Amino acid sequence: MEKTTFVKAKKNIAENVRRQLLKLSLLDNSFTILSDSSYIYFPLKDQNGIQSLMGDFGGELKTVKKLGVRINRRADDYRYGLGSILTQKELKDFSSGYDAFGNIAVISLPDSLAEKENDIAKIILNSNKNLTTILKKAGPVKGVYRVRPVKYLLGKRTYIADYKENGCRFVFDVRRVFFSTRLAYERNRISNLVSHGETVMVPFAGIGPFAIEIAKKRPDADVVALELNKYGVYYMKKNIKINKANNVEAVLGDFHEASKGYRLMFDRIIMPLPKSSTVFLDDAIAVAKSTAVIHLYAFYEKDRINELKDEIIEHGKANKYKVTFLFERVVRTYSKSMIEVVLDYRIEKQNTVWAMQ
To answer: What are phi and psi of 347, to 5 degrees?
Structure first.
């Protein structure tokens, strides 16, 4: 920390003061804005230019010397820019940052920052040359299709993302389909596990990232991707063409119903539906060959992962197949108590039982 000069403003006029300081290029964005219970403290670049501004506010502003927190970040880091318009508390409130889908950023803002949303959007847009559009989350993920409402803020008015990952390109409407960049590592990991000539089933496939990344790496694999959302299937088919992944079959349908037409066909089943994947264990086993690998994603409490394993083992006992766990990994933290975990496991069916079903 080091001493620097601040403009001291009461909270009820602080936003107007901030805008004027920006307009006059007097705000020093190499220091964070400070606050206490009654005042906001804006770091100054030039004391000499402040006199006219102080007059505009009728003597309500004062300059003070205080210990300031210097922002030691790269100039192209959007948080560096945010330090010039947000207090330290506001920066913490904005800790979740944004999700970037290629050309589109979707930011998550608390209600307390609503008045500054356009300024925040401008800084983010200018910090990343790949971005053309800034949207704002306008509600939670909801419904069976797991879609989230969004609000346009700044830049090109579009909702069609153009996103690249692991050598593949995906286009999709962020208002119509679910997509998570947080599974990029998992998609790469699993696509590297697929052997030549495998048959792979991906229920809950969305716009097709798991299926297409596998198909690109293993052109001799046969991949079936199931999705219940018609918009998901629409964009999956577009992405299959874009990536020339002709060994992917995109199917519109419910896994429970569709599984009846794919019995005993697949070497590998990928289940990226963490909120309810275990509900579909019967269907996964039905489409699996006598020996197969399942990748199951689930939300679970941090200290209770063994209960998830026990549930899978008990399902195996009840349905006459052996379970061997191969790998487990925490994919991400979902909440204070919940994590998303992936379990890879091999199943071996008792053939005499399954041949009769």
So the answer is: -115, 145
33 within a domain of the structure (yes/no):
yes
The two tokens of residue 56 are 């505009």
Q: Is 206 helix (H, G, I), strand (E, B) or coil?
A: coil
Rounded CA-CA distance 211/87 in Å is 44
What are the tens digits of pLDDT across the range 205-219? Answer: 999 999 999 999 999
Model pTM score: 0.78
Residue 245's domain comprises 182-355
CA distances from 322 to 29, 191, 200, 285, 347 (A): 61, 24, 20, 11, 5
Q: Using the 3D structure, point to which of 48, 71, 91 is the last residue of a domain.
A: 91
Q: What is the pLDDT of residues 144-193, one digit of tens each?
A: 888 999 999 999 999 999 999 999 999 999 999 999 999 999 999 999 99
Domain endpoint, select from 73, 91, 109 = 91
174 domain residue, yes or no: no
What is the Cα–Cα distance from 84 to 19, expressed in whole angstroms? Answer: 11
